[in-house]
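Quick question about two entries, pasted in order.
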Amino acid sequence: MKKGISRLSLVTGLMIFSNFMYGQGSSNSGNFYTTSLIVVLAVVVIAVLLQLTDNLLMVEAQKSGADKTNRNFSIFPTLSELFAKRLPARVAGERVVRLDKGHDILIEGAATEQINEKVKANTFAVQPPNYFGIKPIPKVVVAVGDSVKAGDELFFDKQYPDVKYVAPVSGEVIAINRKEKRAIKEIVILADKKQSSRALPKINLDEVSREDLVAFMSEYGAFSMIRQRPYNVVVDPAEVPVNIFVSTFDTAPLAPNLNFVVEGNEDAFAAGLKALGKMTSGQVHLGLDGKSEQDPSAAFTAAEGVVKTYFHGAHPAGNVGIQIHHTAPINSNETVWTLDVQAVITIGKMVTEGVFDASRVVVIGGNVNQPTYARTYAGANVGELLKDNIKTEQPRIISGDVLSGEQKQDSEFLNIFDDQISVIEEGDYYEMFGWLLPLSPRPSISNTFPNFLFKNHEFEVDTNTHGEYRAFVVTGQYEKVLPMDIYPQHLLKSILVNDYERMEGLGLLEVVEEDMALCEFVCTSKQPVQKILREGLETLREQ
């Protein structure tokens, strides 16, 4: 702005000089220069006033912390706002957050919105390692051979003995498997053909107190479906979250369409939201898809007692961590809770129907013969869900999406928070000069490959990293795909050197692994970004 004012002053000075030189020539030329001088001075005054107003707005935004939401508080539109794609008509008048960073990865094998009732699982498991923050050896209250109902207690953490972890199905406990140092790996249940649930007391949400609702959710397993941030750990019932966040869409590769998943459970979803509203001192925030051509389900758009925000952008726009960052960022010494749509439905059925229903709609996609949706329960056996459906001879089975999921063997189980199984081929081969001669199409943000010319092309992918581990150099790639106001590469390096103050100051408490999974995908240095991030979170939490 100072440079602009200096230039205007120079122009004004030249015009005054010109007016003085040519003022004696004719009255017409003198009037012309006088008028021009007045116009220029008026423009300068208006420009200064506008700039001062803009600066004051930015100062107030910084004081209130609103600038951290990455929204434009300037009175001047940015180039991205001027040339951005037109928003869908349905979001007119709604609160919308535009995200200009991110990247969508299109993979072959997306499922059509139809449930294959033939896909079934017979064994299910609750896996303590799925819950960050829990002790490696919780107190198990069942033994092999015991019969349990859905909702019966299986174990509890000695740190929070009031929070129960319960069975997702009724059946017989057939195994309690352990791993290194006798830590509990999983408790396996052979499901009954006809499911039964533990009878729960019904809750009148209009009259129940928060204390009674906390006791109910602790005793009957609801808190096992909720995660607490920062750190993405199990919930501490003694802490009151300042906000609760639920994302109603998923932008990860091959992710399920949650509009389809919620069909038939609209009332339970509404009841779950109402119950959650009593648990927080702030608001329940609902993140909706503002980019897709498909309208969000009425269960989401008509939800009452919540703050609805539309997000328009590429992956990871659907991640709840990104939505927290742009709506109500976590301040120091605050906690928020997060959970997914199907967990909200389970809580809704607990309070209104008096049953623990951990049924889940799971999408199976990727390198399979028939990509499909399946109706099952939390913690299902992945091999049974994939029976006779894997196309490749060397499959990588992933619980979750290909960016942030966990590799599984066919004898293992779906992680408790996952609602998709992804299958891709193992990339155990070398490609000569692959970086120099791009012979086969692959998902990439690099313009070396002509991907930018084919926006809707779906790729057949494998696990090959197309490069080896190398020096951790600054490339600016992370910043291109992470729509958060942090410095991701500096953050990771502060974790590697155990600089506690710096890692916290750089925003470690705002992120979890899935938020930076795309950074690992684009990383030229092939760094294990998510592994480093989890180590930093655990280190800082211990401190």
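Here is the second entry:
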Amino acid sequence: MQSNKVERIKYLVDLLNNASKAYYAQDEEIMSNYEYDKLYDELTALEQETGVILSNSPTTQVGYEAVDELPKEQHESPMLSLGKTKDRDELRAWLHGNPAILSWKMDGLTIVLSYSDGKLAKAVTRGNGEIGEVITNNARTFKNLPLNISYKGELVIRGEAVISYSDFERMNAEITNPEEKYKNPRNLCSGSVRQLNNEITAKRNVQFYAFSLVRADEVDFHNSKEEQYRFLEQQGFSVVERIMVNEENILDAIGTFEQRIQTYDIPSDGLVLTYEDIAYGQSLGRTAKFPRDSIAFKWADELRETTLKEIEWSASRTGLINPVAIFEPVELEGTTVSRASVHNISILRGLKLGIGDRITVYKANMIIPQIAENLTCSDNVTIPDRCPVCGGKTQIKQLNEVQSLYCINEKCPAKMIKSFTLFVSRDAMNIDGLSEATLEKFIDYGFIHEYADLFRLQQHREEIVRLDGFGEKSYNNLMDSVERARTTTLPRVIYGIGIANIGVANAKMICKYFDYSFERMQSADVETLSAIDGVGEVIASAFAEFMHDEENIKLMEHLMAQLHLEKPEASAEEQTLEGKIFVITGSLNHFDNRNTLKELIEQKGGKVTGSVTSKTTCLINNDSTSNSTKNKKAKELGVEILTEDEFMGNYL
């Protein structure tokens, strides 16, 4: 019996660590918060029962390791997780008669800020609690963060970087391709804060809310946590919204927050309760993982039991077919819900879903409908072997231990609609007035069958002006946009036709390699394409397969006949890096990523390679004093090592 429990512990540790890695390091979510909390509680109980705690257990570890792309730094003091409860009476009992402060537990990315002589000196992410990522340049763009404060001593504070729901929805509304939309504000914020180019961070409207003062030398806060918050507000910081509570009013205060979360614009996944008396809280010490002066309150998810009616299968441009659970409507958090995404085949099978099963559903963070548990587990859902849209064959593919269903028919109408959506998008042909709904109408009415038909819509003028939502003005605006799109560049076309794995950057590289000759790239074989820096065999095979397909050859011939392609002209004066070879390593401050800098170097005639040789002009590394392999090799060969700023000053 003990051995079975130990095996279960090992399984849960691996499962929860993988979920934490996806959530904290890769900005992905492979299980719901509800499921994670449930499994975490099971692991804690098993560890207490058996006395077995593995060294890598999430009950003893905090967060996950920081990613490699940003510089790392150890925190002055460990950033611990908080103990948690969902029981309101337990939260009240935790007070032991002491006053405390109840505040939002915001759902973003925790940041530590250091100020010296009244100026922002450093910003570091939480990372694994011991070591975080340095994101100072990005923090300078947080829209509500003071860069200079009146206090001139050494100040260290902690807070949460967040993106509001309204900003999240605004940014998603600007993305025409549904598959490219951001999943949630927390993931968008994490990716924004950890960018290598702070211009991108600045565009994302990241906000910062302070929730803890770590150090402020020679300031007397009269042993009051609230005094610390007021001090921070006086310095210009936005401080987490809070209510002073005691045993008499804490339940009412929780109710106040609960009512507000429905319309609160900042993502929150619960509340935090902290003792007002600083000395008392510090006297309690800490456990190996939790401080004892604070505790988190997570919303007890409002669960509703219902019956699963069917699984709807939703197809996309890439062929991915997502399962969606349709169930008897229930009231959740003030709204009626009847469907929830199941995300993929792995989750579907894990839940053992079957038609007619009794399931419980909830809203993750009181917003997104999810299945919490399957009470009957009949496991009778048949995974379709045919696409629900075109009837073509389907195939289950596995990536990073996650199984998903795909339609393998390249001519699937679902792919057709999504493909046209990509083709008219901003980074492709940039044709205004063609939403996915409008494209679907045009396809249904037979106005468009291939890309070239978009430039022949004038043939259907009379039918279009009579459509709902159109008219002469809308039609004329659309035609103006179509005419503007006729004059374009080859990289936009190559990206727009949606070849697998060909993004904007890859499209530019391939076109440049073939000197913007469509005929040359159309006839290129896999070996030739694979030789292009940054392409590789997978992309090369997909590109060649598309270009050599007889039907695609005809489609591209028809499309090219409708377009006027402009070739980027690089003057001799711009080729300032001709004959020079560079190697880029480490994180960058002025560019989105290494590929962005690589493209700029190549535009100016230079070449970027992956390893340092005697032919290398210089190694670009912001950490020029590190003992990395590339730095050592450069020093051995006498190759110059320049920081990003030095490189820009010398060569750009």
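Reply: The first strand starts at residue 72 and ends at 74. The radius of gyration is 28 Å. Hope that helps.
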